[in-house]
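Dear Dr. H.,

I hope your travels went smoothly. While you were away I took the liberty of generating a structure for the chain from your last submission, since the lab meeting agenda had it listed for discussion. I wanted you to have the full record in hand beforehand rather than looking at slides cold. The sequence, exactly as received, is reproduced here:
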Amino acid sequence: MNRRPTLLAALALTAAAALTLSACGSDDDTPAKDKDTIAGADTGGKKSASPATSAPASDDRPEIELPGDISYTFDWPKTGDKEKDAVLADSEQSIKAVDQAIVKQDALDKAYLYYYEGEAAAETQKFVQDYVDHKAAITGSYRFYAPEVNVGKDGTASLSYCEDQGKAFVKYLETNKIKKTEVTAKSYVIYHTSLKKNDKGVWVIQKIVSQSGSAKCQP
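The corresponding predicted structure, in token form, is as follows:
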């Protein structure tokens, strides 16, 4: 995401980045998503026509429903540490929440605002608005892997992870056309996020930066 924010600034959550997409395409004709936007910044997960619930409905966490043409794979094994696993779980939901905002064409969707604050929230709003302005959404398959999480004693944490955008694409809503691109080194994006545990016990993203073409994320 540029799904994620700046501190998201790093996210390259700029509109140009979003529609330029670092996402690479596959050769099939199935709609996929373009996380291009992610390439520079930041990003979510999805589902298809019939909404599928991904987000936990426990406590007051928002429910996340995505169309069936969006799918995710999170190769994020549990660490066995309660707080680290909570960071991973909340980060997964934050990614999907941003994607939901794009699908709903709502730059102020409450779900992602539950997981982002401050600059990160402001940059994410710009990121989503770029899709709205271009009447574009996302489709395809997303894979997240190689997470590295650290939790401090002061209620803060850091998380870095990779994203494979090779089968993710941008879909233009007015024509229903999908923008597909070839898979290149830029299809692999690394994210670095800074989080804080809020008074609700939720790990919220305060800063996020991303870099496409990361050597660490190449297959």
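Two observations you may find useful: The radius of gyration is 15 Å. The first strand starts at residue 52 and ends at 53.

With kind regards,
E. W.
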